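Proteins fold reproducibly. Next comes a concrete instance:

***
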Amino acid sequence: IKYSEIVEENAVKYEIDKYLVYAVIKAESKFDEKAESEVGAKGLMQLMDINSEHYGLTDPYDIEQNIEAGVKHIQTYLNNYDGNLEMALMAYNGGPGTMERRGVKNSSDLYKMPTETINYVPAILANYENYKNS
């Protein structure tokens, strides 16, 4: 994977498992740094403009900036949810506001989230396990 050095550097820097970062990139953009979703998420880690701005990105398609901001974003959610990976992934995909509005209190409330998020969380976890075990 051509992004491995950047992923590994940021994984160490922000204390996130590199295999989790790979799993997120695979699900979000299929490793296409020019990816853009219908709702405007951009780059490898599919960051929304508001998140790009928050983390100081000047170019969401810049591989190094996008990966670093995405890893920081995951770390923020892991910190916000006391290390609960499923809750962090729900927030990363569906947004903490959606979680709050839908009454999500713990990972067993995944069913309350939009279908995309309901499918996203187990897909990430499966990819994560595959990367860790390969």
In short: The two ends are 14 Å apart (CA to CA). The mean pLDDT is 95.
